[in-house]
Amino acid sequence: MERAVELSSSDPQEALRLLRGAEKLTEDREQLRDIKKEMSRIYYHLDEPDSAIVQMCVWKALYDTSELTAMAHINNLLGLSWQRLEVTDSALYYFGEAYKYFKRLGDLKGSVFLLNNIGISLAHAGKEEEALQAFEQAFEFCLDLPFKEDFASVFVNYAIALLNAGRIDKAREIYEQYFPKGEQTEGYSLDLKTSVASFEAIYLRETGHLEEAVKKYRWLIDSLLQEDSRVPVRFYYGLGLTYYLQGEYDKALSVYSSSMDESPRPYERGLLLEGLSRTYIRLGEADSAIHYLDLWLEQKTAEQEESRQRLLNEMKGKTERLLQQTRIALLEQKQRNYRLLLLSSLLGMLCLAFLTVWLYQRSKIRQLRQAEKIREQKQKLLELSLRMQQKGELLKKLKDDMVELEEQLPGLSLPLRKKVEKTYRDVLNLDEDWRLFDIYLGDMHKGFYDVLKKQCPELTDNDLRMCSLVRMRFSNKEISQLLFVSLDTVKSQRYRIRKKLGLNREENLADFLSGLSDR
């Protein structure tokens, strides 16, 4: 393993051979992770993203998802590898996964670079508006971090995205405030220097300085060729577009056509085809223009079909993995459940038995208390009723005495007799007793009268009083004694109440009234 690491830069193929041998010999999980990590790194630097992805997936599987730092790092590398393969959907998926882990870690700097990578993938796919949103969020995060020169690539990508969106003034502001310039770029990579120059070329073109833009694009292309580096097709496209805007259509066609041989990305190829068709239209060559438009439409159709098929395959793969993980989880859960089944069952039975006894005792206590409460309520009503009955009998005796007195004294005036009756009634305070009787009933059945009146507005005060007594399960005989009326009067009043409430013969009035407050 150590020898392979030493050879990874000078002789990567030999390093890979040694790592494969070490992989066969090791049985240690951590050592295997280190081997897969080194193999992934070598394949990535050899520009073999397919092989790198295979090793990274195994490397990732050797980690638990709770190891956030490792999962963030590996998902980011997977995204970069898919980005090299120009499979934007997969690159965005893994970048998104890595971004979630960096957020959980609270790593703002890592989140910035992930958003930058997401923006680059979206830009390569031609999703310029979404790319701008990603770059803008990365830029805003940068403002909360020190060492802003570390984020030069973020500022450059954000500014270029602003230019592509037509926000020239904002792009210029970012350029003047944050871009490295002059001697500040000495320590920066060629990619960053060319990115800065790319922004300057686009800015010159968008602001109408076409000749200066052509010189900047030429400098960009020549600088990369001198370093034996691949010239991004977007630089050729930018040069061709600048020639087109100058009216030099032949030069534009020459740049576009030669760029088609540079193996452009699908999005870049679409730009070139669009540029070719637009230029041929300017030259009045309709057949050529239509030809390149047809090619552009065919590419768009193929891209959509490829994207759809890739999405279906990814969904199928994810579903299969999820099903497998679910099966394993279910088996493990069954094993755990089996070990605890007997103990759980016994404990459950004990708890159930205890709960049953407790609920039974609680119910019996509640019933006894309720019965005692009803008994006390009935006793108080009977005492009040008895007192009222006694007063009523005194009042009746007074009336009889007044009749007898009138027979003995025929000249006794009617007003005098009524005055005596009123005085005697006031002394007995019988009306006040009835008022207390109704108040006591109302307190015993709070809200019952309101519900009953809402159910049947035709009920009188006497009907309400009767309903309360029926609800308390007083018998007809007891009610007749309480209200000082005959048994037939009670039966007649109950009949009228049933009729007002619309009850049929099978329905019990007391049961109906008992359940009414719960409705």
Can you offer a commentary on this structure?
- The chain is mostly helical.
- It has a domain at about 445-519: Arc Repressor Mutant, subunit A (Orthogonal Bundle).
- About 80% of the residues lie in helices and about 0% in strands.
- The chain contains 23 helices and no strands.
- It has helices at about 1-5, 10-25, 30-45, 50-60, 70-85, 90-105, 110-125, 130-140, 150-165, 170-180, 190-205, 210-225, 235-245, 250-260, 265-285, 285-410, 415-430, 430-445, 450-455, 460-470, 475-485, 485-500, 510-515.
- α13 packs parallel to α15.
- The chain is elongated, with a radius of gyration of 47 Å.
Summarize the SSE layout with pairings.
Blueprint: H1 2-7, H2 12-25, H3 29-45, H4 49-61, H5 68-84, H6 88-105, H7 108-124, H8 128-142, H9 152-164, H10 168-178, H11 190-206, H12 210-226, H13 233-246, H14 249-259, H15 266-283, H16 286-408, H17 414-428, H18 430-444, H19 448-455, H20 461-471, H21 476-483, H22 487-501, H23 509-516
Helix pairs in contact: 2-3, 3-4, 4-5, 5-6, 6-7, 7-8, 7-9, 8-9, 9-10, 9-11, 11-12, 12-13, 13-14, 13-15, 14-15, 15-16, 16-17, 16-18, 20-23, 21-22
